Q: What sequence folds into this?
């Protein structure tokens, strides 16, 4: 063993304080921060100083036509489509895979639509343009179906009773 003492420099690279506010990063630390490995492998990421974007924001070239992990069966697009198929089944848009019947369950359909909406909020700015488009169109279609079924059921319940039903005539 040698008597040399090894000096370490500890650098805090967190972008946020404990209370969630953005941390002020000194200029010398900004230039030393390496690109995160996961993002570097997924897509080209520009430095925050160049774009003024939020941290973790991914930037995709307009020329990129293929989604990342397009051939992977467990990619994000397939994941949201599986959730959307649950919602579509609950809203009677497709047959149930087991019973082969079209049944409407508005509460269950609303639950799956809300799950997709939560994913849309949580992944905002981190999706490939095609993934973003798929999620937006699925949500728009499902929400329109839900609203039409909900309004149809409300109309049916309003017209289900007449004055004769109430007074007994």
A:
């Amino acid at each position: 063993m040698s008597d040399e003492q090894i000096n370490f420099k500890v650098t805090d690279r967190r972008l946020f304080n404990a209370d969630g506010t953005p941390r002020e990063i000194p200029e010398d630390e900004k230039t030393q921060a390496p690109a995160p490995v996961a993002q570097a492998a997924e897509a080209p990421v520009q430095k925050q100083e160049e774009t003024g974007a939020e941290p973790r924001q991914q930037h995709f070239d307009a020329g990129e036509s293929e989604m990342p992990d397009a051939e992977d069966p467990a990619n994000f697009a397939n994941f949201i489509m599986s959730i959307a198929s649950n919602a579509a089944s609950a809203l009677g848009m497709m047959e149930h895979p087991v019973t082969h019947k079209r049944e409407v369950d508005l509460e269950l359909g609303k639950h799956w639509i809300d799950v997709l909406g939560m994913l849309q909020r949580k992944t905002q700015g981190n999706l490939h343009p095609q993934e973003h488009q798929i999620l937006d169109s699925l949500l728009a279609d499902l929400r329109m179906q839900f609203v039409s079924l909900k309004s149809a059921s409300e109309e049916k319940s309003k017209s289900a009773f007449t004055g004769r039903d109430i007074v007994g005539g």
The first helix runs from residue 27 to 32. Residues 76-158 form one domain. Helices lie at 27-32, 37-42, 48-51, 76-90, 106-122, 129-159, 163-167. DSSP finds seven helices and no strands in the chain.
